[in-house]
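User: I'm putting together notes for a lab meeting next week and I want to include a structural view of one of the chains we've been expressing. I don't have a solved structure, so I'd like a prediction I can at least talk through. The sequence is below, exactly as it appears in our construct file.
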Amino acid sequence: MVEIRGFLIDLDGTLYIGDRPVAGAKEFVTWLQDKNIPFLLLTNNSTRTPYQVRDKLQKMGIEVNPAKIYTSANALGDYIREYFPGKHGAFVIGEDGVKEELKLCGWEIVDSHLGAEFVVVGLDQHVDYRKLKEAVLAIQNGAKFIACNCDSGFPSPEGLLPGAGAIVNAITTVVGIEPVVLGKPNDCIIRYAVRRLGTELDKTAIVGDRLDTDILLGKKMGMITMLVLTGVVKSKEEISRINPDFVFKDVEDLWGNIFRLL
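Assistant: Thanks for the context. Below is the predicted structure for the 262-residue chain, given as structure tokens.
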């Protein structure tokens, strides 16, 4: 028996893969809402705004208020509001989620390394050589380097695809400087997410498909860790030294057993 007061639930590989929901995703989220159990859908994917994630989920039959969605781009916004308030210029490798968050913070998105005080990197499915060039030049000129996350890849129906970490690694290979990383498995995103959730860390469960982000972070923060075998990790045999508290086939299996856990 464990005491669970709230959930942080991953998206890619946990509730859906590509545009296909995982078995039990709708039922689990609906149950949490019906029981008024605090939860956030917590994702390292910074490409979409919470409203765009809401729309994606709606197409799968899952209804969620955007306020229940927290991305690494949202963590970026909370981070710069805390440490770098005011107007700044940033060169961005990223998509709508990152750009929208920076605009909400009053930052200017610049088109080249000139005038860039910061380089902000998230997953960008349209990255090209020019973007990489401008990023490395900006950092060499003194711009601060921030990454929404460093996931090497993310699951899709086709297989594992390059993630934001692949882009970050291309830049660090050139400049020899590591970025400030905000997403899982770094504690920054959990600090902000739990603040929004309003629960205690040791009574909060983190649910995800990756050992190296979701489970590692949960262990580090003293949370209850739940691994589902629908994304990056697909079998119990793949579990290494990072041992989750619970392992489920999918969120349907989790939801089916949640009553005995609570």
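A couple of points you could mention at the meeting. The longest helix spans residues 72-83. The first strand starts at residue 6 and ends at 9.

User: Perfect, that's what I needed.
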